[in-house]
Amino acid sequence: MRQELGPYFIPDCIMQVPDILLTLNFKKLEVPVKKILMGRDINKAVRIDSISNLDAFHTFIELSKPVIEEIKRKKNM
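User: That's the sequence. What structure does it adopt?
Assistant: Structure tokens below.
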């Protein structure tokens, strides 16, 4: 990817999740996921009652905790 697309497109981390997070209208929760990973409060980043697959969301939150802590640590450096 780096050779064909450039270093901008190389992700800092890749997380395997059980399902793509979707709203009740089947829209992907890309922006809220990014906000959560950047350290924003979950309740401010997404409306929990609008998520269609809550089990996958809770799994994502648990899997993302180490990533969020690392991002916060880097911000404070």
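DSSP finds four helices and no strands in the chain.
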